[in-house]
Amino acid sequence: xxxxxxxxxxxxxxxxxxxxxxxxxxxxxxxxxxxxxxxxxxxxxxxxxxxxxxxxxxxxxxxxxxxxxxxxxxxxxxxxxxxxxxxxxxxxxxxxxxxxxxxxxxxxxxxxxxxxxxxxxxxxxxxxxxxxxxxxxxxxxxxxxxxxxxxxxxxxxxxxxxxxxxxxxxxxxxxxxxxxxxxxxxxxxxxxxxxxxxxxxxxx
Length: 204
Fold this sequence. Notes:
Layout: E1 22-25, H1 26-29, H2 46-55, E2 57-61, E3 67-69, H3 76-81, E4 92-96, H4 97-102, H5 105-123, H6 140-155, H7 160-167, H8 174-183
């Protein structure tokens, strides 16, 4: 059963959690994306963004992980770290089937908002993978992606405690995690023993 949350997502967003592994139109798996309030706040013309959403894809993958935008080719830093990534010439968001089936609806929603912004950034000629010279948490494209999702979470009444957990990804150091919180104006957690961090692939 999908994980539940006390913070429901907007009603138009109703992901199809039943799809098998494979490649689908993005809006067939995530209907309602273009109807939720934040879609109108994406940069660029709304009509253009809707057309991009209609022409984008979701790749449901049986492997472990969460969600990421498929790069054109595997970035050198990902190869060096020993991670595997699906590549694609299309605008294609890769989603773990397990995450789609069982992940909390709010996490799916916030992740999709983030990843679709990466599609728009790439369409605009932005570099999503600048290499190891720019740490993940300091990349403008990542800060913008997380900030977009955080703004929507706060609009929905999500507290900072939820956001801290949501932002605590396993491939960044503790110092980088705290720096990401500062970038996003999310207060740091109170001092206490560390807890397990949210598992997801190291991806844009």
